[in-house]
Amino acid sequence: MHKVAIVGRPNVGKSSLFNRLVGRREAVVADFPGVTRDAKEGLMMYQNHRIILIDTGGLWSGDEWEQAIREKAEWAMEGAQSVVFVTDPREGLTTADYEVADWLRKLGKPVIVAANKIDSPKHETYLAELWGLGFGDPVALSAEHARGLDDLLDRVMEHMPADTEDVPDIAPIRISFIGRPNVGKSSLLNALTGSERVIVADQPGTTRDSVDVEWDYAGQRFVLVDTAGIRKRPDTSIEEYAIERSKTAIERSDVIWLVVNADAIGDHELKLANLAYDSGKPVIVVVNKWDLIPDEDLKSTERELNEKLHHISYAPRVYTSAINEYGIHDMLAEAMKLYEKWQSRVPTSELNRWLGIWTMKQRVPNFHGKPLRMYFMTQVETAPPTFAMFCNRAEFVTRAYEGYLMNRIREDLGMAGVPVRLKWKEKG
Ligand code: GDP
Ligand code: GDP
């Protein structure tokens, strides 16, 4: 996915531009967690390309362009392939503009200068000065009047990496909610789709076909499968029923949202987590009702969650509140990201380059004085990504070493959060 950062001194119109491009509801915009609380991320679609926009505007405090802000901005812009440098030529260039320009030059990413607030052609006389920034031809636009946005995006596309996938006919991502009754699944679905249209009435005694709910987000189609199961609560053993429903739902989906309430994780959740794990499908732990956790308990609650869900520790967490729509964007963004990685394929040459590094960093296990030898690694399947490792003796492999390799595969091959499989094959 293409990533583009929006930078510039305060008041030039960065957030106006961001909101204009991301469009849709502003509520879908998520804050970055942690350090860069004030950088925003949004998704947009242009000519069949998905683009992640990063607005670093909120990082500025007053007029100072300090080291600390620069560092946060660099962190937030990690992975961006190009930068839109927003200016306000009607007001003229300021010292701050030149400071940002110097910083961007050092950063070395391609820069497109956006001349904002060019609300009408008569304002175009202001553009000449912008050449002085040293980034070439500025793009005239008006965030407020939606002028010049396509010109800007065409320039952004010039810096799109050649291997970026075109998505002309985007398959829907099929997702299911699993979780015990009352954790907030229906409420989350309503928050996601922005409507109340998914209330499914209880119909005791009738076996309803599963109901699929569809909606679009950032140019991506989503299908929530088996929605009937969310509301249906027959009298007999709700939890057993929920497990059966979850199995069916998991089979029919690509990605799974396991919804939990942070203060109530029990055997039921662990069973569901195991089902999700066994399916080999990406699972996202959605910790809902986060609004009910008092601030002073957030850290300890997170720690407890980590302990309880350690066997799917690779699965990403998102923290949500269905009632104030917090974290909704994260749920969708994570689902898109994992779905893509889950289907990705790593070239054999790259795998074996990494294998060399991994075996150098961590000594291979010995079995009665004989070392495990790994000759060659290749990806044999996608969805889930499955790797075959050719070795001298499969029984020499220790759990610890296998765990180490799985972690390396996830981290070094960009598969964080994705369930991966590793098969050992003996080769004479
Ligand atoms: P930021 O601090 O760079 O994020 O700037 P904002 O997006 O908050 O915009 C600063 C001010 O400029 C606001 O009062 C906007 O309404 C105004 N503004 C933004 N874009 C335009 C534009 O295209 N034309 C005009 N005339 N004003 C704009
Ligand atoms: P489901 O059975 O999993 O579909 O759960 P529902 O969506 O029916 O929600 C169960 C109850 O929890 C309802 O009373 C909701 O209003 C409430 N609820 C759902 N999400 C949240 C949340 O994020 N915060 C709070 N405080 N209450 C929630």
Tell me what the structure shows.
Belongs to the TRAFAC class TrmE-Era-EngA-EngB-Septin-like GTPase superfamily. EngA (Der) GTPase family. It comes from Deinococcus rubellus. GO terms for molecular function: hydrolase activity. The protein has 428 residues and is an alpha/beta fold. 32% of the residues lie in helices and 21% in strands. It has helices spanning 14-22, 67-76, 95-107, 149-157, 185-193, 228-231, 238-251, 267-279, 298-308, 328-342, 348-361, 399-412; strands spanning 2-7, 30-31, 40-46, 49-55, 82-87, 111-115, 139-140, 173-178, 213-217, 220-224, 255-261, 283-288, 317-319, 366-367, 370-371, 374-381, 386-391, 421-426. The strands form four sheets. The protein has a seven-stranded mixed β-sheet, sandwiched between helices. Strands 9-10-8-11-12-13 form a six-stranded mixed β-sheet, with helices on both faces. Strands 16-17-18 form a three-stranded mixed β-sheet. A hairpin with a 2-residue loop joins strand 9 (213-217) and strand 10 (220-224). The two termini are 42 Å apart. Bound molecules: guanosine-5'-diphosphate (2 copies). The site of one guanosine-5'-diphosphate has 15 residues, from helix 1.
